[in-house]
Structures are given as structure tokens and as C-alpha cells.
Input
Amino acid sequence: MKSKKKKHSLTIKQRNSLTGYLFFSPWIIGFLVFTLYPAIYSIKLSMNELQITTDGILMKFKGLYYYNEAINVDTSFKTNVIDEVYFALSATPIIIVFSLIIALLLNRKYPLRSFFRGVFFLPVIIMSGPVISELLTKYIMNLAVFNPVIYQFLMRLPSFVRNPIFFALSNLVFFLWFSGAQILIFIAGLQKVSTEIYEAASIDGATAWEKFWKITVPFVKPLAMVNAIYTVMELANTSYNYVNIKIASHLLEVGRPYSFSAAMSWIYFGVTLLLLLLVYLVFQGFGRRDNA
Amino acid sequence: MRVSKNISALKFSQHTFKKYLFGSKEKIGKINLLVYFAILGGIGFLFLYPVLYMIINSFKTPEDLVDPAIAWVPTSIFLGNYVKAFVTMDFMNTFRNSLLMSITPAIIQTIATAIIGYGLARFEFPFKKLWVIFIVATFIIPAQVTLIPRYMMFNNYGMINTPWPNLLPAAVGQGLKSAIFILIFYQFFSSYPKSLDEAAELDGAGKFRVFSTIAIPMAKPAIVVSMLFSFVWYWNETSQSSLFFGSVIKTLPMKLGSFAAAYEQVYNPNDADVFSAINESISLTGTFLSILPLLILYFILQRQFVESVERSGITGE
Output
């Protein structure tokens, strides 16, 4: 009786927000238990020395000792991080541009379109740690070495031109396979550009080139940013990322279990955040130039 | 009179010819189409190259493999690699594990993210913006940061080497890339008018009734996307699951990671015969077998896969 009365005393708005929270509450519980608490605990781990005894885990506060170990003492961690940052910086623009081109090609209407779409989304399905490392590390298709004519031609170019091309060619399949989801996102977005805008532009005498830069690019820009963020995160999280391999290999190390790995993963997380910030700044700058 | 008529007819046919070759606004011309096909076919070949390479090599005998003259067409279709890879991976058992360990979390994750996304989309409640920011943040926080504490937590509750570490986070929207699915459902459930709910409520349906009978049937594309992608991602995930239950429940990608070692255990490692040692063909067959179920699924559901991505408003922002 009382509860019924109480229910009626709530306004519709309050009742709405209560139901909303009811639907949403699983996430809050999950967030606290499986994300926030582990994250905080992991910071604690990274600052303590752990001793696993029969009574449980003993912790001794060490401050930033393990962070210092990772950056200044460990021989390979720093180079691994720098390598991965370099890789992400060079791979992300290539993947974005490539997936945009493919998406534009796939967006037109022509026979066999669904077949080609099927081909280009395939990597999303079969990409996984062991499979891709099996295929790409052992049997990587290095186009430059593959074809002696291309190789000869490239060797004549100055090194500042040659090296990026070599880099792109030798990782070509990797890049292609990494752009499945990005192609999807671009296509889904491109489908929403109404054809009327293009028609209006054609009537005003715009060429295909102008239409691309004035209509497609501004429209696609936010999607490109989403894709860039997604790419950076994917590259940082794959299990064959050298930093991740390094972190996993120290997980149960005798003498410093968990702590050293935790410190390294937080450092790498910080580096990834800087990369994301860079992506954001690049797209902001791009936007400003666009408006001018 | 007649001449001018002929000329105009000629002009007309020239025009249609040009249209035929180069296309118009409505249709792509044949030459453009050829260029399209050449570009797409070329890049598509590069895409498929590793897969084709894998399939063809899986049928090669050891003799074919070392013969430099045989690149694409093996002398015979040799199934010995399949037998060996099948035995090495203990395929039927591993396949069943993989299937169970991907379908169950995929279903749970889809239900959970649909409920959470619905709550976000259809109701106004305080701090909603903040929660959405947190959801995006969970996507950015890398798995390896939370991996160790999660492991210790599951270990405390005796859940290591059981399926629970995969299922529990999925049930509360913290599974593999749950944030993406929550945002997809959020986007999807925001896209239809509120008056629909109100009409149902006037007819006496409660909030949960509205969710289950109006919202869910409409969200079919988003559900398909969530189910398929969750399934695929859970199938391919190894770094977390191998830590949580890898020593008891082996999935296909895990078996692939230790394929060479397993092969030597099954087949006599001291064998002096070169042809019975592990070779490229056998390990490629293993790789192929481990993704074969996904490939079959993809071929069956390809249309839904591609179309549902387009319809689910995956790029709402």
C-alpha cells in the first residue's frame, strides 16, 4: 500500500529516469567491478613490490621504482615502444587513405558489388593473433623482393623516397588486412551522403575533383577521425604488438610478478593516449584549414 | 531533309555509344566498369593472396612443396596434411570448445548491450553524458591494464579455468569491445520516434514490454551486427582467454599458437624421415582449419553481414 503511494508521488520525469537507470544499471555494476576497480588495483600493483606467500599477497610500497626500471633500466622496453609508435604513426595514415579509396570504389553501384564487398570484409572475420602472425610473419608477401623489376627500380631512388615505399610494400598485406573495419565504417557513412548534394554541385558546374574535396572530404572527415582512433587502438591492442608481447612475458616473472608488467602497461597506455591526442589535434588542424 | 535526319540519328547513336562506354549519372559505363574491376580485382587479389596461398599449400605433398616448379597448381590433391593437422589439433574437441566459448558470450553480450543501449537511448536520466564518456573510455583503456587484476579477482573466486571469466564481463557490458555494441544499440534505439513507445504505453504496455515487443524486433540489424562481430571477436581472442582458461579449455586459435609443439608430441619427434617432420604445408593446413568455421559462417551470412552494418547506423556520430 505504502509503496504504491510512493510510486504515485514520483513525477513522470523521475519515474523515467529511474527506469532508465534500471536498464543502464548492469553497465554501472560491470564498470565498477570489471574496469574501474581492476584499473585502480593495477596502478596500486605497479607501485608495490609483491610477495606471494601462503597467507596471501604481501605488498611493499616502492613508488615509481618499476616505472623507472621500465624506462631507464630495461634494455628492450623503450625501443619496443618507440618502434610501435613509429609503426602506428606510419601505418595509420596509410590505412585511413587506403580504406577511404576502397570505400569510395565499393560505394558505387555496379554488378558483382556484393562479391567485392565480401572480399574486402573478409579480414575482419579471420584476423586473429595466431592466424595473422602465422600468415604475415612466416609467409609475408614482400612485393619489392617478389618482383626484381620493381626492386631494381626502387634501388635507384634516393633513400628518403625509397625507404617509405619499401616500408609500405613490405607491410602491404598487413595494412590491407587491417583496414577491413575501417572500410566498413567509411561505406556506412558514405551511404548517408544524399545524391542530391552531388547533383546540385554538378548543376553549378563542379568537377568530380571539386566535388570530392568540397563534399566527400568534409563529410568523411569525422568518420576518418573515428577510424584513426580505432586504428591506433587496434594497433596498440593486438597480441602481436611487440610491447604487448614484452608485457605478457614479464607477467609472472620471478622477483617482480605483476608489478613490472603493470607499470609497463600504464606507460604504454600513456603513450597511446598521446597518440590519440595527436590524432585529435591533426584532425582539428585539418578542420580549421578547411573552414578558412 | 533526309540527310539532316540521318545526321541527328548518327548523333543520337554516338551519344548512346558514349553513354555505353563512359556511363552517365545513373549508370557506370563499360570502360569505367572495366577500370573498376581491374582496380578492385587487383587489390582484392592482394587481400585474398594469403588465404589462397594457404588453401593451395594445404593440398601439397612434401615433394610438391620443395619443387620450385610448382607454385599454384599442386600435382595432386593431397589430403595427408589435413589428417595430420586434424589429429594434431584434436579438431572435433577443440572446435566444440571454440564454438561454445564464442557463441555463449556473443549471445550474452548482445542481450546485455541491447538492454544498456536501450536504457541510454530511450530515457533521460541524470549524468547520462558522463556515462557515455565513461563508455568510450572503457574502449580506450587497453585490456592489458585490467588483465592482471581481473585475473587475480577471478582467481580469488576460483573461476580460473572455467568459462566464467568470459561470460561475467559480457553479461554486464564489459566484454570484448562491448563499448562499440552499446554505442551501436544506443544509436539504433535513438533513431525511431518516441511516440511509438507512448502509443504502446497508452495501450497498457509496461516499459519492459515495450522493450521486448517493440524495440527488440525493430533492432534486428543491430542485433545481427552485434551477434556476428561478438562471435568473431570472441572466436579470435586468445591473449585473455588463454590466461583465464587456456590450460583447460583449448580453442582453435590457441591450439594454432602451439601447433608446432603439439605436432612433435603427436608424431614421433625422433623420426629421421624428413617427410614426416612438420613442414609449411602442415602448419598452413592447421591455420586454414582454425579459420575454416569462420569462413563457412561468413559465406553463409555474407549478405546479412554487409547489409546489417549499413543499416545498423554504425557511424551515427
Notes: The first helix of chain A runs from residue 2 to 9. Chain A touches chain B through 90 residues (CB under 8 Å). The beta strands of chain A are 48-53, 56-61.
